[in-house]
Amino acid sequence: MHFRQKIFAREGRSFPGRIYAETVLAPAYEEAKAHLFKPMMAVNKAQLIMLVEQGLVKQSDACRIMKAILNVTDDRIQRTTYTGKFEDLFFQVEHLLIEEAGEIAGNLHLGRSRNDMGVAMYRMAIREKLLEALAALVELKETVLEVADEHKLTIMLGYTHTQQAQPTTMAHYLMAMLDSLGRDYKRLTAALDTVNQSPLGAAAITTSGFAINRQRMAELLGFDGFIENSYDAIAGGDYLGETALALKMSMISLGRYISDFLQWSTQEFGAVTAAEPYVQISSIMPQKRNPVSFEHIRSLASSVTGLCETVLTMLHNTPFGDIVDTEDDMQPYLWKALTTATQLYRLTAAVIGTMTVNSDVLLARARESFATVTELADTLVRECGISFRQAHAVVQKAVKTALAAKIGVRRIDARLVAAAAEEVLGKAIAVNDEMISQALDPVNFVMRRCLPGGPAPVEVERMINKRRPILAANKAAVIDIQLRIKKALEWLDEVGHSWSEKA
Protein backbone atom coordinates (compact mmCIF):
# COMPACT_ATOMS: atom_id res chain seq x y z
CA MET A 1 0.00 0.00 0.00
CA HIS A 2 1.30 3.45 -0.95
CA PHE A 3 2.28 5.55 2.06
CA ARG A 4 -0.46 8.12 1.26
CA GLN A 5 -3.07 5.40 1.30
CA LYS A 6 -1.72 4.20 4.63
CA ILE A 7 -2.13 7.68 6.10
CA PHE A 8 -5.65 8.07 4.70
CA ALA A 9 -6.56 4.61 5.98
CA ARG A 10 -5.44 5.59 9.46
CA GLU A 11 -6.63 9.22 9.46
CA GLY A 12 -9.69 9.14 7.21
CA ARG A 13 -10.41 11.13 4.07
CA SER A 14 -12.79 13.74 5.49
CA PHE A 15 -12.36 16.54 7.99
CA PRO A 16 -11.02 16.22 10.62
CA GLY A 17 -8.09 13.85 10.33
CA ARG A 18 -7.79 11.69 13.43
CA ILE A 19 -4.41 12.96 14.59
CA TYR A 20 -5.43 16.56 13.84
CA ALA A 21 -8.54 16.13 15.97
CA GLU A 22 -6.59 14.48 18.79
CA THR A 23 -3.74 16.99 18.78
CA VAL A 24 -5.53 20.27 18.09
CA LEU A 25 -9.29 20.28 17.79
CA ALA A 26 -10.38 18.11 20.73
CA PRO A 27 -8.09 19.82 23.29
CA ALA A 28 -9.14 23.25 21.98
CA TYR A 29 -12.80 22.24 22.29
CA GLU A 30 -12.32 21.23 25.92
CA GLU A 31 -10.49 24.46 26.73
CA ALA A 32 -13.20 26.48 25.00
CA LYS A 33 -15.91 24.70 27.01
CA ALA A 34 -14.13 25.56 30.23
CA HIS A 35 -13.08 29.15 29.53
CA LEU A 36 -14.92 30.57 26.52
CA PHE A 37 -18.51 29.31 26.56
CA LYS A 38 -19.82 31.93 28.98
CA PRO A 39 -18.10 34.82 27.15
CA MET A 40 -19.44 33.40 23.88
CA MET A 41 -23.03 33.44 25.10
CA ALA A 42 -22.62 36.93 26.55
CA VAL A 43 -21.37 38.09 23.15
CA ASN A 44 -24.39 36.42 21.52
CA LYS A 45 -26.81 38.24 23.83
CA ALA A 46 -25.09 41.58 23.31
CA GLN A 47 -24.99 41.06 19.54
CA LEU A 48 -28.70 40.30 19.45
CA ILE A 49 -29.65 43.32 21.55
CA MET A 50 -27.51 45.57 19.35
CA LEU A 51 -28.99 44.14 16.15
CA VAL A 52 -32.50 44.89 17.39
CA GLU A 53 -31.54 48.41 18.46
CA GLN A 54 -30.04 49.00 15.01
CA GLY A 55 -33.14 47.71 13.27
CA LEU A 56 -31.29 44.78 11.70
CA VAL A 57 -33.34 42.04 13.38
CA LYS A 58 -37.05 42.19 14.21
CA GLN A 59 -38.00 42.10 17.89
CA SER A 60 -40.21 39.04 17.40
CA ASP A 61 -37.37 37.12 15.76
CA ALA A 62 -34.97 38.32 18.44
CA CYS A 63 -37.19 36.90 21.19
CA ARG A 64 -37.08 33.47 19.53
CA ILE A 65 -33.32 33.67 19.13
CA MET A 66 -32.85 34.82 22.73
CA LYS A 67 -34.92 31.91 24.00
CA ALA A 68 -32.66 29.59 22.03
CA ILE A 69 -29.58 31.27 23.51
CA LEU A 70 -30.90 30.66 27.02
CA ASN A 71 -31.72 27.05 26.20
CA VAL A 72 -28.11 26.34 25.23
CA THR A 73 -26.96 26.11 28.83
CA ASP A 74 -23.52 25.65 30.32
CA ASP A 75 -24.52 22.25 31.72
CA ARG A 76 -25.68 21.14 28.31
CA ILE A 77 -22.42 22.16 26.65
CA GLN A 78 -20.20 20.69 29.38
CA ARG A 79 -21.72 17.27 28.69
CA THR A 80 -20.62 17.39 25.05
CA THR A 81 -17.36 16.05 23.65
CA TYR A 82 -15.57 16.79 20.42
CA THR A 83 -16.88 14.48 17.67
CA GLY A 84 -15.59 16.18 14.55
CA LYS A 85 -19.11 16.88 13.31
CA PHE A 86 -18.51 20.58 13.97
CA GLU A 87 -15.20 22.30 13.55
CA ASP A 88 -15.24 23.96 16.95
CA LEU A 89 -17.42 25.18 19.81
CA PHE A 90 -18.69 28.16 17.80
CA PHE A 91 -20.20 25.97 15.10
CA GLN A 92 -21.51 23.53 17.71
CA VAL A 93 -23.36 26.35 19.47
CA GLU A 94 -24.58 27.92 16.21
CA HIS A 95 -26.01 24.55 15.18
CA LEU A 96 -27.86 24.23 18.50
CA LEU A 97 -29.25 27.77 18.19
CA ILE A 98 -30.59 27.08 14.69
CA GLU A 99 -32.00 23.81 15.96
CA GLU A 100 -33.81 25.68 18.74
CA ALA A 101 -34.99 28.80 16.87
CA GLY A 102 -34.89 27.84 13.20
CA GLU A 103 -32.89 29.39 10.40
CA ILE A 104 -33.68 32.88 11.69
CA ALA A 105 -30.95 32.25 14.32
CA GLY A 106 -28.44 32.48 11.49
CA ASN A 107 -28.99 36.25 11.47
CA LEU A 108 -27.29 36.43 14.86
CA HIS A 109 -24.04 36.42 12.91
CA LEU A 110 -24.90 39.52 10.90
CA GLY A 111 -21.92 41.85 10.63
CA ARG A 112 -19.53 39.70 12.63
CA SER A 113 -16.93 36.99 12.14
CA ARG A 114 -15.36 34.34 14.27
CA ASN A 115 -12.33 36.64 14.10
CA ASP A 116 -13.71 39.57 16.08
CA MET A 117 -15.95 37.34 18.16
CA GLY A 118 -13.04 35.08 19.11
CA VAL A 119 -10.78 37.96 20.13
CA ALA A 120 -13.63 39.41 22.21
CA MET A 121 -14.07 36.10 24.01
CA TYR A 122 -10.33 35.81 24.64
CA ARG A 123 -10.22 39.32 26.03
CA MET A 124 -13.22 38.66 28.29
CA ALA A 125 -11.66 35.46 29.64
CA ILE A 126 -8.31 37.15 30.25
CA ARG A 127 -9.81 40.23 31.92
CA GLU A 128 -11.70 38.00 34.37
CA LYS A 129 -8.54 36.12 35.30
CA LEU A 130 -6.52 39.35 35.42
CA LEU A 131 -9.01 40.87 37.84
CA GLU A 132 -8.84 37.76 40.04
CA ALA A 133 -5.04 38.02 40.02
CA LEU A 134 -5.19 41.73 40.88
CA ALA A 135 -7.58 41.07 43.76
CA ALA A 136 -5.21 38.41 45.13
CA LEU A 137 -2.23 40.73 44.65
CA VAL A 138 -3.99 43.44 46.66
CA GLU A 139 -4.64 40.86 49.39
CA LEU A 140 -0.91 40.04 49.44
CA LYS A 141 -0.04 43.74 49.60
CA GLU A 142 -2.42 44.18 52.56
CA THR A 143 -0.78 41.30 54.41
CA VAL A 144 2.75 42.54 53.76
CA LEU A 145 1.84 46.00 55.01
CA GLU A 146 0.29 44.65 58.23
CA VAL A 147 3.29 42.40 58.96
CA ALA A 148 5.60 45.36 58.31
CA ASP A 149 3.60 47.44 60.79
CA GLU A 150 4.30 44.81 63.45
CA HIS A 151 8.05 44.85 62.83
CA LYS A 152 9.09 48.49 62.66
CA LEU A 153 11.42 47.86 65.63
CA THR A 154 12.64 44.43 64.54
CA ILE A 155 16.33 45.08 63.88
CA MET A 156 18.01 42.78 61.36
CA LEU A 157 20.95 42.78 59.01
CA GLY A 158 20.56 43.82 55.42
CA TYR A 159 22.64 41.99 52.84
CA THR A 160 24.38 42.98 49.63
CA HIS A 161 26.10 40.38 47.42
CA THR A 162 24.84 37.81 50.00
CA GLN A 163 27.14 39.37 52.64
CA GLN A 164 26.25 41.30 55.79
CA ALA A 165 25.97 44.95 54.80
CA GLN A 166 24.17 47.27 57.23
CA PRO A 167 21.51 47.01 59.93
CA THR A 168 17.93 47.64 58.86
CA THR A 169 14.54 46.39 60.06
CA MET A 170 12.18 43.66 58.96
CA ALA A 171 9.62 46.39 58.29
CA HIS A 172 12.05 48.20 55.99
CA TYR A 173 12.57 45.00 53.98
CA LEU A 174 8.85 44.27 53.82
CA MET A 175 8.04 47.80 52.72
CA ALA A 176 10.53 47.38 49.88
CA MET A 177 8.69 44.20 48.95
CA LEU A 178 5.39 46.07 49.18
CA ASP A 179 6.55 48.80 46.82
CA SER A 180 7.79 46.20 44.34
CA LEU A 181 4.37 44.52 44.51
CA GLY A 182 2.87 47.96 43.94
CA ARG A 183 4.72 48.22 40.66
CA ASP A 184 3.43 44.77 39.73
CA TYR A 185 -0.06 46.12 40.37
CA LYS A 186 0.57 49.08 38.07
CA ARG A 187 1.89 46.86 35.29
CA LEU A 188 -1.00 44.43 35.57
CA THR A 189 -3.62 47.19 35.64
CA ALA A 190 -1.99 48.73 32.57
CA ALA A 191 -2.31 45.33 30.90
CA LEU A 192 -5.96 45.21 31.96
CA ASP A 193 -6.54 48.61 30.33
CA THR A 194 -5.18 47.17 27.09
CA VAL A 195 -7.12 43.92 27.39
CA ASN A 196 -10.49 45.48 28.21
CA GLN A 197 -11.13 46.92 24.73
CA SER A 198 -13.70 45.46 22.37
CA PRO A 199 -12.78 44.21 18.88
CA LEU A 200 -16.43 43.56 17.99
CA GLY A 201 -17.67 45.08 14.78
CA ALA A 202 -14.31 44.56 13.10
CA ALA A 203 -15.79 41.36 11.66
CA ALA A 204 -13.21 39.45 9.63
CA ILE A 205 -10.89 42.43 9.12
CA THR A 206 -12.71 45.36 7.42
CA THR A 207 -15.88 45.88 9.56
CA SER A 208 -19.22 45.28 7.83
CA GLY A 209 -21.68 46.73 5.36
CA PHE A 210 -24.38 46.41 8.02
CA ALA A 211 -24.98 49.29 10.42
CA ILE A 212 -23.28 47.66 13.41
CA ASN A 213 -22.89 49.82 16.53
CA ARG A 214 -19.40 49.03 17.79
CA GLN A 215 -19.57 51.36 20.79
CA ARG A 216 -22.83 49.81 21.94
CA MET A 217 -21.32 46.32 21.79
CA ALA A 218 -18.44 47.48 23.96
CA GLU A 219 -20.83 48.99 26.53
CA LEU A 220 -23.06 45.93 26.66
CA LEU A 221 -20.12 43.63 27.46
CA GLY A 222 -18.43 45.87 30.02
CA PHE A 223 -15.49 46.87 27.83
CA ASP A 224 -13.93 50.29 28.40
CA GLY A 225 -14.15 51.10 24.68
CA PHE A 226 -13.46 49.54 21.30
CA ILE A 227 -10.35 49.16 19.17
CA GLU A 228 -10.91 51.72 16.43
CA ASN A 229 -8.90 50.27 13.56
CA SER A 230 -10.64 47.07 12.48
CA TYR A 231 -7.41 45.54 11.19
CA ASP A 232 -5.74 46.18 14.56
CA ALA A 233 -8.79 44.77 16.34
CA ILE A 234 -8.25 41.29 14.92
CA ALA A 235 -4.49 41.44 14.31
CA GLY A 236 -3.08 42.99 17.47
CA GLY A 237 -1.78 40.38 19.90
CA ASP A 238 0.03 42.85 22.14
CA TYR A 239 -2.74 42.56 24.75
CA LEU A 240 -1.49 39.00 25.24
CA GLY A 241 2.16 40.04 25.28
CA GLU A 242 1.59 42.92 27.68
CA THR A 243 -0.25 40.65 30.11
CA ALA A 244 2.46 37.98 29.85
CA LEU A 245 5.25 40.51 30.36
CA ALA A 246 3.61 42.10 33.41
CA LEU A 247 2.91 38.72 34.96
CA LYS A 248 6.37 37.39 34.17
CA MET A 249 8.02 40.36 35.88
CA SER A 250 5.79 39.89 38.92
CA MET A 251 6.68 36.21 39.22
CA ILE A 252 10.40 36.91 38.84
CA SER A 253 10.18 39.40 41.71
CA LEU A 254 8.09 37.03 43.82
CA GLY A 255 10.73 34.33 43.41
CA ARG A 256 13.40 36.72 44.66
CA TYR A 257 11.57 37.57 47.89
CA ILE A 258 10.73 33.92 48.48
CA SER A 259 14.37 32.91 48.05
CA ASP A 260 15.16 35.22 50.98
CA PHE A 261 12.40 33.81 53.16
CA LEU A 262 13.49 30.27 52.37
CA GLN A 263 17.08 31.06 53.37
CA TRP A 264 15.86 32.86 56.49
CA SER A 265 13.95 29.70 57.43
CA THR A 266 17.08 27.58 57.72
CA GLN A 267 18.12 26.54 61.22
CA GLU A 268 21.48 28.21 60.69
CA PHE A 269 19.84 31.51 59.79
CA GLY A 270 16.93 31.19 62.20
CA ALA A 271 15.21 34.43 61.19
CA VAL A 272 11.68 33.25 60.43
CA THR A 273 9.61 30.16 61.15
CA ALA A 274 6.76 29.10 58.89
CA ALA A 275 3.51 28.20 60.64
CA GLU A 276 2.43 24.56 60.99
CA PRO A 277 -0.08 24.57 58.09
CA TYR A 278 2.74 25.38 55.69
CA VAL A 279 5.48 22.91 56.66
CA GLN A 280 5.95 19.22 55.94
CA ILE A 281 7.89 16.48 57.70
CA SER A 282 10.43 13.96 56.51
CA SER A 283 9.50 10.31 56.01
CA ILE A 284 12.76 9.20 57.62
CA MET A 285 14.20 12.09 59.67
CA PRO A 286 12.05 12.76 62.75
CA GLN A 287 13.57 16.16 63.43
CA LYS A 288 12.77 17.66 60.03
CA ARG A 289 10.40 20.59 59.67
CA ASN A 290 10.52 21.56 56.03
CA PRO A 291 9.14 25.00 55.00
CA VAL A 292 8.16 23.59 51.62
CA SER A 293 5.44 26.20 51.11
CA PHE A 294 8.21 28.67 50.28
CA GLU A 295 9.77 26.14 47.90
CA HIS A 296 6.47 25.52 46.11
CA ILE A 297 5.85 29.24 45.72
CA ARG A 298 9.28 29.75 44.18
CA SER A 299 8.97 26.70 41.93
CA LEU A 300 5.48 27.55 40.71
CA ALA A 301 6.43 31.19 40.18
CA SER A 302 9.15 29.89 37.86
CA SER A 303 6.56 27.77 36.05
CA VAL A 304 4.40 30.86 35.50
CA THR A 305 7.45 32.67 34.16
CA GLY A 306 7.88 29.81 31.70
CA LEU A 307 4.23 29.92 30.65
CA CYS A 308 4.51 33.64 30.01
CA GLU A 309 7.66 33.12 27.99
CA THR A 310 5.77 30.56 25.92
CA VAL A 311 3.14 33.19 25.13
CA LEU A 312 5.80 35.69 24.07
CA THR A 313 7.61 33.09 21.99
CA MET A 314 4.41 32.10 20.20
CA LEU A 315 3.80 35.77 19.37
CA HIS A 316 7.30 36.26 18.02
CA ASN A 317 7.68 36.61 14.24
CA THR A 318 4.01 35.83 13.51
CA PRO A 319 2.19 37.72 10.75
CA PHE A 320 0.22 40.77 11.87
CA GLY A 321 -3.26 39.43 11.27
CA ASP A 322 -5.74 36.77 12.28
CA ILE A 323 -3.62 33.67 12.87
CA VAL A 324 -3.85 30.63 15.13
CA ASP A 325 -0.57 31.42 16.93
CA THR A 326 -2.49 33.94 19.05
CA GLU A 327 -5.61 31.83 19.44
CA ASP A 328 -6.62 28.40 20.69
CA ASP A 329 -3.10 26.99 20.96
CA MET A 330 -1.75 29.95 22.92
CA GLN A 331 -4.58 31.09 25.17
CA PRO A 332 -4.44 28.17 27.65
CA TYR A 333 -0.85 29.05 28.55
CA LEU A 334 -1.90 32.55 29.60
CA TRP A 335 -5.02 31.31 31.37
CA LYS A 336 -2.96 28.83 33.39
CA ALA A 337 -0.32 31.47 34.13
CA LEU A 338 -2.93 33.90 35.50
CA THR A 339 -4.73 31.24 37.53
CA THR A 340 -1.49 29.94 39.06
CA ALA A 341 -0.27 33.46 39.84
CA THR A 342 -3.55 34.20 41.62
CA GLN A 343 -3.09 31.14 43.82
CA LEU A 344 0.55 32.04 44.50
CA TYR A 345 -0.37 35.55 45.65
CA ARG A 346 -2.90 34.03 48.05
CA LEU A 347 -0.51 31.35 49.29
CA THR A 348 2.27 33.88 49.84
CA ALA A 349 -0.09 36.08 51.84
CA ALA A 350 -1.07 33.13 54.02
CA VAL A 351 2.50 31.96 54.66
CA ILE A 352 3.99 35.42 55.33
CA GLY A 353 0.99 36.50 57.35
CA THR A 354 1.35 33.56 59.74
CA MET A 355 5.13 33.15 59.98
CA THR A 356 6.99 33.90 63.21
CA VAL A 357 9.83 36.40 63.05
CA ASN A 358 12.61 35.54 65.51
CA SER A 359 13.38 39.11 66.55
CA ASP A 360 15.81 38.29 69.37
CA VAL A 361 17.97 36.18 67.08
CA LEU A 362 18.05 38.91 64.46
CA LEU A 363 18.97 41.63 66.97
CA ALA A 364 21.70 39.50 68.55
CA ARG A 365 23.19 38.79 65.13
CA ALA A 366 23.17 42.50 64.29
CA ARG A 367 24.90 43.33 67.60
CA GLU A 368 27.69 40.86 66.86
CA SER A 369 28.18 42.02 63.27
CA PHE A 370 30.68 44.50 61.87
CA ALA A 371 27.84 45.83 59.68
CA THR A 372 27.51 48.93 61.89
CA VAL A 373 30.96 50.30 61.15
CA THR A 374 29.67 52.64 58.43
CA GLU A 375 28.14 54.63 61.28
CA LEU A 376 31.49 54.59 63.09
CA ALA A 377 33.09 56.21 60.02
CA ASP A 378 30.22 58.73 59.88
CA THR A 379 30.76 59.50 63.57
CA LEU A 380 34.45 60.20 63.04
CA VAL A 381 33.52 62.68 60.27
CA ARG A 382 31.01 64.43 62.53
CA GLU A 383 33.06 64.44 65.73
CA CYS A 384 36.68 64.57 64.59
CA GLY A 385 36.58 66.86 61.56
CA ILE A 386 38.19 64.45 59.12
CA SER A 387 36.95 63.58 55.62
CA PHE A 388 34.83 60.53 55.02
CA ARG A 389 37.54 58.87 52.94
CA GLN A 390 39.99 59.35 55.85
CA ALA A 391 37.41 58.05 58.32
CA HIS A 392 36.74 55.05 56.06
CA ALA A 393 40.46 54.19 56.04
CA VAL A 394 40.73 54.52 59.82
CA VAL A 395 37.72 52.28 60.47
CA GLN A 396 38.91 49.76 57.90
CA LYS A 397 42.23 49.54 59.74
CA ALA A 398 40.46 49.19 63.09
CA VAL A 399 38.30 46.34 61.75
CA LYS A 400 41.32 44.54 60.29
CA THR A 401 43.12 44.84 63.64
CA ALA A 402 40.10 43.47 65.48
CA LEU A 403 39.73 40.54 63.09
CA ALA A 404 43.44 39.72 63.30
CA ALA A 405 43.24 39.76 67.10
CA LYS A 406 40.06 37.64 66.88
CA ILE A 407 38.01 40.10 68.88
CA GLY A 408 34.40 40.93 68.10
CA VAL A 409 32.96 44.26 67.06
CA ARG A 410 31.74 44.99 70.58
CA ARG A 411 35.35 45.02 71.82
CA ILE A 412 36.38 47.79 69.45
CA ASP A 413 37.09 50.71 71.78
CA ALA A 414 38.51 54.23 71.70
CA ARG A 415 42.09 53.02 72.19
CA LEU A 416 41.92 50.70 69.16
CA VAL A 417 40.35 53.39 66.94
CA ALA A 418 42.87 56.03 68.08
CA ALA A 419 45.75 53.66 67.30
CA ALA A 420 44.32 53.03 63.85
CA ALA A 421 44.07 56.77 63.24
CA GLU A 422 47.69 57.32 64.29
CA GLU A 423 48.82 54.65 61.86
CA VAL A 424 46.63 55.73 58.93
CA LEU A 425 46.58 59.50 59.36
CA GLY A 426 49.79 60.04 61.27
CA LYS A 427 47.94 62.08 63.89
CA ALA A 428 45.73 61.59 66.92
CA ILE A 429 41.96 62.04 66.91
CA ALA A 430 39.74 62.69 69.93
CA VAL A 431 37.46 59.68 70.53
CA ASN A 432 36.02 58.05 73.65
CA ASP A 433 34.46 54.68 74.45
CA GLU A 434 30.91 56.03 74.74
CA MET A 435 31.15 57.55 71.26
CA ILE A 436 32.46 54.28 69.81
CA SER A 437 29.90 52.12 71.61
CA GLN A 438 26.98 54.23 70.42
CA ALA A 439 28.28 54.31 66.85
CA LEU A 440 28.50 50.51 66.79
CA ASP A 441 25.00 49.96 68.23
CA PRO A 442 22.68 48.61 65.46
CA VAL A 443 19.65 50.24 67.08
CA ASN A 444 21.37 53.63 66.95
CA PHE A 445 22.37 52.90 63.34
CA VAL A 446 18.76 52.33 62.31
CA MET A 447 17.39 55.28 64.29
CA ARG A 448 19.80 57.65 62.54
CA ARG A 449 18.64 56.50 59.08
CA CYS A 450 15.55 58.69 59.03
CA LEU A 451 15.92 60.21 55.58
CA PRO A 452 13.00 59.53 53.20
CA GLY A 453 12.85 55.80 52.55
CA GLY A 454 15.21 54.88 55.38
CA PRO A 455 14.70 52.16 58.02
CA ALA A 456 14.15 54.42 61.06
CA PRO A 457 10.80 53.43 62.63
CA VAL A 458 9.46 56.97 62.34
CA GLU A 459 10.18 56.96 58.60
CA VAL A 460 8.80 53.47 58.06
CA GLU A 461 5.67 54.53 59.94
CA ARG A 462 5.32 57.49 57.58
CA MET A 463 5.67 55.20 54.58
CA ILE A 464 3.09 52.79 55.98
CA ASN A 465 0.61 55.60 56.58
CA LYS A 466 1.20 56.95 53.09
CA ARG A 467 0.58 53.59 51.48
CA ARG A 468 -2.60 52.66 53.35
CA PRO A 469 -4.85 54.94 51.26
CA ILE A 470 -3.05 53.81 48.08
CA LEU A 471 -3.77 50.22 49.02
CA ALA A 472 -7.40 51.05 49.76
CA ALA A 473 -7.66 52.77 46.37
CA ASN A 474 -6.15 49.70 44.65
CA LYS A 475 -8.70 47.46 46.29
CA ALA A 476 -11.59 49.78 45.46
CA ALA A 477 -10.47 50.07 41.83
CA VAL A 478 -10.43 46.30 41.31
CA ILE A 479 -13.83 45.90 42.97
CA ASP A 480 -15.25 48.76 40.90
CA ILE A 481 -14.16 47.19 37.60
CA GLN A 482 -15.44 43.77 38.67
CA LEU A 483 -18.80 45.24 39.66
CA ARG A 484 -19.11 47.27 36.48
CA ILE A 485 -18.50 44.20 34.33
CA LYS A 486 -20.79 42.08 36.50
CA LYS A 487 -23.61 44.62 36.18
CA ALA A 488 -23.21 44.77 32.40
CA LEU A 489 -23.40 40.99 32.08
CA GLU A 490 -26.29 40.75 34.56
CA TRP A 491 -28.21 43.31 32.50
CA LEU A 492 -27.71 41.11 29.44
CA ASP A 493 -29.17 38.21 31.41
CA GLU A 494 -32.15 40.29 32.52
CA VAL A 495 -32.92 41.37 28.96
CA GLY A 496 -32.40 37.81 27.80
CA HIS A 497 -34.97 36.40 30.21
CA SER A 498 -37.41 39.22 29.44
CA TRP A 499 -37.21 38.63 25.69
CA SER A 500 -37.26 34.88 26.05
CA GLU A 501 -40.58 35.03 27.91
CA LYS A 502 -42.12 36.90 24.95
CA ALA A 503 -41.09 34.25 22.43
Automatic annotation (TrEMBL):
Residue ranges of every copy of the Argininosuccinate lyase C-terminal domain listed in the record: 370-446
Keywords, in A-Z order: Amino-acid biosynthesis, Arginine biosynthesis, Cytoplasm, Lyase
InterPro entries cross-referenced by the UniProt entry: Arg_succ_lyase_C, Argininosuccinate_lyase, Fumarase/histidase_N, Fumarate_lyase_fam, Fumarate_lyase_N, L-Aspartase-like
Pathway membership: Amino-acid biosynthesis; L-arginine biosynthesis; L-arginine from L-ornithine and carbamoyl phosphate: step 3/3
GO MF annotations in UniProt: argininosuccinate lyase activity
Pfam families referenced in this protein's UniProt entry, alphabetically: ASL_C2, Lyase_1
Enzyme class at the top of the EC tree: lyase
Entries under SUPFAM superfamilies matching the protein: L-aspartase-like
The protein's Enzyme Commission number: 4.3.2.1
Gene3D superfamilies, per the entry: Fumarase/aspartase (C-terminal domain) (1.10.40.30), Fumarase/aspartase (Central domain) (1.20.200.10), Fumarase/aspartase (N-terminal domain) (1.10.275.10)
Segments forming domain Fumarate lyase N-terminal: 97-306
Reactions it catalyzes: 2-(N(omega)-L-arginino)succinate = fumarate + L-arginine
Any one of the GO BP annotations: L-arginine biosynthetic process via ornithine
GO cellular component term of the entry, any: cytosol
UniProt subcellular location: Cytoplasm
Family that this chain belongs to: Belongs to the lyase 1 family. Argininosuccinate lyase subfamily.
Name of the featured protein: Argininosuccinate lyase
Record lineage: Bacteria, Bacillati, Bacillota, Negativicutes, Selenomonadales
Gene assigned in the entry: argH
